[in-house]
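pinging the channel bc i need a second pair of eyes. not urgent but kinda urgent?? the chain im working w is below, pasted from the shared doc
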Amino acid sequence: MSSTESPQAPRGSWPLYEVFVRGKRGLNHVHVGSLHAADERMALTNARDLYTRRNEGVSIWVVRSDAITASTPDEKDPFFSPSGDKVYRHPTFYAIPDDVPHI
């Protein structure tokens, strides 16, 4: 048995993890890929080795795929339509002063 294999479960039954990395110049984490691992620690270590080989990351998140709940493309219109009638949420509703940078 190699050092990366778990004695509890055969390799083929390891759960799938989604990997998110925040780059040195980034403000948010970006989905970079997926991997199978026996546990969270192994997923984090393998994600570091696989997705940050060139020192481009400063933070990594790993999330089990079965723990993610997402909307589907079929429900796009009804799911997001309630925000369409709230114009005050759009940045065009506000006057931005000339002396305010980066908005």
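so The chain is about 15% helix and 20% strand. and The radius of gyration is 20 Å. — does that match what u expected or am i reading it wrong
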